[in-house]
Request: fold
Amino acid sequence: MISVILNVYKRPYMLEKQIQAILNQSVEIKRENIHVWYNKSDVVQHFPKDKNINTYACNWNTKFWGRFTLPLLLKTPYVAMFDDDILPQRDWFKNCLETIEKPETNGILGGSGVVVDCKGYHPHHKFGWNGIHSNKTERADLVGHAWFFRQEWAKYIWYEKPFTWDNGEDIMFSYLAQKYGNINTFVPPHPENNKELWSSDWKTGQEVGTDMNASWRLGGHLDVRGQICVYCIDNGWRTVNNIK
Reply:
């Protein structure tokens, strides 16, 4: 039912922890439905211990985009994708399935949802594991860190050339899916009193996601995200706050 895509680049030590977190989900995941994209990594010493898991070795740095080619090849109804600093909690997939199967929240789901408050990326507010811990599903403009979507929607991210190949795959996916498929973006519930539903272990996400490998630390990273948001809004992206 669900294929899972993991990405290995500068944090290979996280791979086995992520695999275990996926296999521990309350919704059963078959090992052969786990796919690992090696993004210019030393792949030999970091292949999964379980040989039933699929591996894809890329000898150049595709940054954020290469992993988004894999969903086009998959046959399961749903695809889940994770950044390498995320450990999904036990009921995350259950949470996603219950959310996406409701007509009113049938959209791209994620663990960290951004609602832009201006024509740009900042200021904004967030829902999810690293934002507002809401008891209900929240509409967002874009989601990141963890994605969950119908396999048939994977094509939309390739409908237009990216604004830049260096950044913004999360923004472009939500923008293009809405523009060409009328598909909106949501964050499933992240209740404070039930962290088993969360997309990420909070402590791990904070510690690993703020290390020196974090992409947001790169010079100009956030400024470029603002430029991408402006481009998307100018080209028809309907944001939650109807910014024009």
Q: What stands out?
A: The chain has five helices and nine strands. The chain has a mean pLDDT of 92. Residues 221-234 form the longest helix (14 residues). The beta strands are 2-8, 34-39, 54-58, 78-82, 108-116, 124-128, 138-140, 142-150, 185-187.
